[in-house]
Specification:
Elements (H helix, E strand, L loop, with lengths): L4 E3 L2 E4 L4 E6 L9 E7 L6 E7 L4 E3 L7 E6 L4 E6 L8 E8 L12 E2 L3 E6 L1
Parallel strand pairs: 2-11
Antiparallel strand pairs: 1-3, 3-8, 4-5, 4-9, 5-6, 7-8, 9-10, 9-11
Length: 122
């Protein structure tokens, strides 16, 4: 398992932007697949975006065109740029990592962080 630490959450108005970051302190191994999950109150955790070691991204339909996932392999850091935020994006966002396939939003990640809260007001 990988220890992951998220940051960058907060409260914004609809239409605003946030940038989430995730690091793996003290971990030199680069997971093949990294991604972002989110869980809203009363709902199941869902995959938002994933990116493999080669930089190929995959997105949930609900965030395509608004969110951009990226990673810095040299620093073992993951990012999620969120633009045009909507109230329905409000959730706890989790950074996740795994070594298995497929690297897409259906992957049941085995490692994730404590989460960072994103709240979007209308």
């Amino acid at each position: 398992q990988v220890h992951l630490v998220e940051s960058g959450g907060g409260s914004v108005q609809a239409g605003g932007s946030l940038r989430l970051s995730c690091t793996a302190p003290g971990y030199s191994y680069r997971p093949y697949c990294m991604g972002w999950l989110r869980q809203a109150p009363g709902k199941e955790r869902e995959g938002v975006a994933t990116i493999d070691l080669g930089g190929s991204p995959k997105y949930a339909d609900s965030v395509k065109g608004r969110f951009t996932i990226s990673r810095d392999n040299a620093k073992n850091t993951l990012f999620l740029q969120m633009n045009s935020l909507k109230p329905e994006d409000t959730a706890m966002y989790y950074c996740a990592a795994d070594t298995t396939l497929p690297c897409d939003t259906t992957l049941k990640f085995r490692s994730w962080g404590q989460g960072t809260q994103v709240t979007v007001s209308s």
